[in-house]
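Work Package 4 report. The design task specified in the project plan requires that, given a folded chain encoded as structure tokens, an amino acid be chosen for each position. We show below one input record used in the internal validation round.
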């Protein structure tokens, strides 16, 4: 409970022995007992919360010309102490703040102290950016993978550069300096890789430059955290991360493994783009090889190449979601990874929760797989796990998503085809659908994109390349008396 406090009046007069009279001076009051308007100064006194169970010296301030001024400041101090709301630790912190405030210095604003108390930070010192970000991350109730990503941005990039800056002093220039430091470190890594000194090259082994996409995600993490500091905690009023400018990331465009691209790859090992797509012939060659050499994984890869499922959607597919009699399946969950731990959860977006029709080849493959799975169960007997997953190991356990990717990479190398990633097989499915006559909206719905714009941004250039191939094939069908190509 906050003490009431009291007001008093004192002066600097001294007695005959030279001692100050203080509140005992007879001139402080008139003959009628009222306070003199021209002699002495007003002050106040209030008991502070206990410190470690022991009584503190009271807080005293004097020197006010008017009683109203002293009363007003006493009222403000009582209000600040009341913000502790009965919490001894907070009350002690506010008392320390008041005790250490120099006479003549304005008291902290009530709303500022209230914001700090509500945010769970000390009201006695400036909130540092690093301390706020660390507590913000701990308090966030978000997807584990997102939390890991936020933590990496804060730990590896943000805190090393701006953790020491008081949160309310953080400005755009601080963030510009941070991103400049990241760029400088990138240059150091690249220069060290090219160094003739093996010791210098070894110093950056395993270290990668921070790419444009990561830069954008770092900015997004900081912007989100500072928005929460504004809206939820009222610690600041300005978000510098919303105003700092960084170079936009340019997404790699998918390219097709044309005959010319394959020839160059075989000669130099270079890929035209980080994201590559097989032709239907190349995809068919891969499926033939996979069916002959790895029947365990073949049905999953065939389903991805035909219907464009994500890796987590294939590995997380449940038995009850597959109806081979009607050639339909439901996609609502995925088996994803947090670190290396596999976690079953819902797909990220509403658009990702969808129904898909199955083609006749996929139905045949999945029927054969179910028959094979039934034989595994008979052989395993009681050892078979009580699994609800559609694609499982011979012991009934679900496949780890990372293992599915690793096996895909090995099969691509083994069959001698130009390389693509497992996720690129999803891009293959999109191009095959387009070549078969599907429009952009159908492709978008099949892939589970949240908007058709996402589909257009990813595939426009790729589908134009497919269109060019179709145009060439169509033109070749026209009978001509002369041969324009030969003449050219």
């Amino acid at each position: 409970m906050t003490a009431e406090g009291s007001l008093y009046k004192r002066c600097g007069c001294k007695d005959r022995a030279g001692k100050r009279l203080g509140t005992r001076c007879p001139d402080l009051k008139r003959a009628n007992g009222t306070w003199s308007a021209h002699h002495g100064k007003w002050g106040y006194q209030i008991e502070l919360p206990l410190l470690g169970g022991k009584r503190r010296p009271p807080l005293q301030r004097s020197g006010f010309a008017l009683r109203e001024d002293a009363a007003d400041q006493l009222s403000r101090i009582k209000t600040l102490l009341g913000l502790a709301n009965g919490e001894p630790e907070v009350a002690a912190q506010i008392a320390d703040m008041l005790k250490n405030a120099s006479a003549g210095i304005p008291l902290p604003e009530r709303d500022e102290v209230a914001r700090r108390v509500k945010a769970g930070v000390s009201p006695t010192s400036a909130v540092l950016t690093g301390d706020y970000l660390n507590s913000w991350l701990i308090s966030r109730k978000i997807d584990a993978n997102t939390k890991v990503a936020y933590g990496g941005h804060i730990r590896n990039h943000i805190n090393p550069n701006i953790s020491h800056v008081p949160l309310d002093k953080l400005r755009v220039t601080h963030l510009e300096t941070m991103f400049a430091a990241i760029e400088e470190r990138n240059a150091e890594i690249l220069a060290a890789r090219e160094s003739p000194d093996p010791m210098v090259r070894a110093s950056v082994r395993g270290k990668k430059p921070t790419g444009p996409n990561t830069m954008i995600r770092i900015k997004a993490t900081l912007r989100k955290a500072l928005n929460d500091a504004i809206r939820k905690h009222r610690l600041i009023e300005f978000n510098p991360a919303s105003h700092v400018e960084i170079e936009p990331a340019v997404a790699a465009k998918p390219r097709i493994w044309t005959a010319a691209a394959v020839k160059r790859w075989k000669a130099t090992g270079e890929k035209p783009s980080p994201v590559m797509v097989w032709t239907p012939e190349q995809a068919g060659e891969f499926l033939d090889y996979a069916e002959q050499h790895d029947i365990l994984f073949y049905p999953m890869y065939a389903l991805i190449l035909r219907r464009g499922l994500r890796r987590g959607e294939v590995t997380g597919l449940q038995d009850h979601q597959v109806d081979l009699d009607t050639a339909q399946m439901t996609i609502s969950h995925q088996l994803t990874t947090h670190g290396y731990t596999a976690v079953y959860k819902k797909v990220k977006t509403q658009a990702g929760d969808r129904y898909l029709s199955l083609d006749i080849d996929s139905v045949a493959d999945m029927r054969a797989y179910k028959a094979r799975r039934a034989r595994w169960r008979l052989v395993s007997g009681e050892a078979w796990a009580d699994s609800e997953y559609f694609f499982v190991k011979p012991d009934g356990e679900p496949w780890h998503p990372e293992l599915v990717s690793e096996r895909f990479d090995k099969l691509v190398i083994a069959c001698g085809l130009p390389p693509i990633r497992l996720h690129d097989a999803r891009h293959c499915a999109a191009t095959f659908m387009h070549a078969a006559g599907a429009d952009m909206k159908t492709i978008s719905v099949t892939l589970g994109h949240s908007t058709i714009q996402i589909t257009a941004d990813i595939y426009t250039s790729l589908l134009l390349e497919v269109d060019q191939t179709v145009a060439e094939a169509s033109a070749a069908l026209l009978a001509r008396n002369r041969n324009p190509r030969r003449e050219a």
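The mean pLDDT is 85. Validation will be extended to a larger panel in the next phase.
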